[in-house]
């Protein structure tokens, strides 16, 4: 049976206000990560994947999808408040019959990034896929009030962390491997209240294309998924209530995406189905064209 893309839960139904970093278990309405809907077909059978920010949102949906496609998973999360969410993601991966390594990680620390990746490769028995997904944002109504420390934190998490993780992963990746970065529609359209965040996402898109050109000779593909609005704990924990209630209304479908609707893009880019794809920005924005 086909599904009408206009139908789905929207933040306006009921909104849960949260404090950063936000947690999945308190998100209302609850998000869909594919727990009951994603069906694997062996596209990633026997592969080993590292995912940053796998405790919630897109990261959790990708972990579930990858596991059901046959991959063993190592994923990170950042804060102690996210412990319970991380264990829930772990439960779904293990239920799919796959190995799972879960550890806290500050992706903006190059030493921690290296230790995490080395441990993942050791525990999983190798590494084939890196998904750079961890991110930070905070709405800033006044551009002049954007403090240097806040700018540095956003950049250290969103782009420095991606570079550090890729550097660490390259010690283990070989021909046929894939690096997938999480970009954003804000990289293509900008955002008046997320200027530092949008800048980092633009950097991620350029990083993707540049690294793809550099690693082509090694047979390693580098691509990016640049979603539009997606319903995750990041939204009610970093946006004012009025923005949260209307979040995603400007998409063609009149609602934000669910994480489960974005995860198949990552499966495609991680699998042999996308063997010719590199340096690409796959943009499931729900908006058709930039505006």
Summarize the structure.
By secondary structure, this protein is of the alpha/beta class. It is 37% helix and 11% strand. It is built from 9 helices and 7 strands, in the order βαβαβαβαβααβαααβ.
Description:
This protein is of the alpha/beta class. 37% of the residues lie in helices and 11% in strands. The chain has one domain: NAD(P)-binding Rossmann-like Domain (Rossmann fold, 3-Layer(aba) Sandwich), CATH 3.40.50. It contains nine helices and seven strands, in the order βαβαβαβαβααβαααβ. A seven-stranded parallel sheet has the order 3-2-1-4-5-6-7, sandwiched between helices. Helix 1 (57-68) crosses helix 9 and helix 3 packs parallel to helix 4 (148-169). The two termini are 32 Å apart.
Full CATH superfamily name:
NAD(P)-binding Rossmann-like Domain
What's the rounded overall pLDDT mean?
92
Number of domains: 1
Please identify, by name, the CATH architecture: 3-Layer(aba) Sandwich
Q: What is the CA-based Rg, rounded? A: 18 Å
Q: Give the topology string: H per helix, E per strand.
A: EHEHEHEHEHHEHHHE
How does the SSE layout of this entry go?
Layout: E1 48-51, H1 57-68, E2 72-77, H2 83-95, E3 100-104, H3 110-124, E4 129-132, H4 148-169, E5 178-182, H5 186-189, H6 195-215, E6 221-225, H7 234-238, H8 241-245, H9 259-270, E7 281-282
Helix pairs in contact: 1-2, 1-9, 3-4, 4-6
Task: Based on the model shown, name its key terms.
single chain, 291 residues, alpha/beta, seven-stranded parallel beta sheet, 7 strands
């Amino acid at each position: 049976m086909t599904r009408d893309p206009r139908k789905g839960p929207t933040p306006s139904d009921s909104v849960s206000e949260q404090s950063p970093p936000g947690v999945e278990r308190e998100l209302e309405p609850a998000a869909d990560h594919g727990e009951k809907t994603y069906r694997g077909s062996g596209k990633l059978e026997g592969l080993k994947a590292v995912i940053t920010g796998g405790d919630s949102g897109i990261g959790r949906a990708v972990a579930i999808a990858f596991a059901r496609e046959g991959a063993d998973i190592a994923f990170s999360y950042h804060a102690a408040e996210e412990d319970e969410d991380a264990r829930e993601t772990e439960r779904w991966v293990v239920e799919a019959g796959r190995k799972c390594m879960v550890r806290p990680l500050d992706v903006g620390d190059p030493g921690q990034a290296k230790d995490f990746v080395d441990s993942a490769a050791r525990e999983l028995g190798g590494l084939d896929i890196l998904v750079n997904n961890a991110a930070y944002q905070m709405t800033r109504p006044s551009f002049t009030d954007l403090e240097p420390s806040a700018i540095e934190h956003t950049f250290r998490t969103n782009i420095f962390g991606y570079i550090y993780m890729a550097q660490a992963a390259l010690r283990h990746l070989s021909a046929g491997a894939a690096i997938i970065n999480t970009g954003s529609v804000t990289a293509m359209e900008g955002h008046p209240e997320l200027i530092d965040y949008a800048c980092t996402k633009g950097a991620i898109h350029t990083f993707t294309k540049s690294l793809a050109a550099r690693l082509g000779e090694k047979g390693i593909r580098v691509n990016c998924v640049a979603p539009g609005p997606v319903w995750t704990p990041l939204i009610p924990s970093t946006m004012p209530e009025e923005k949260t209630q209307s979040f995603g209304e400007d998409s063609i479908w009149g609602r934000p995406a669910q994480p489960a609707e974005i995860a198949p893009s990552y499966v495609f880019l991680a699998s042999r189905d996308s063997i010719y794809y590199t340096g690409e920005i796959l943009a499931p924005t729900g908006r058709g064209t930039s505006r």
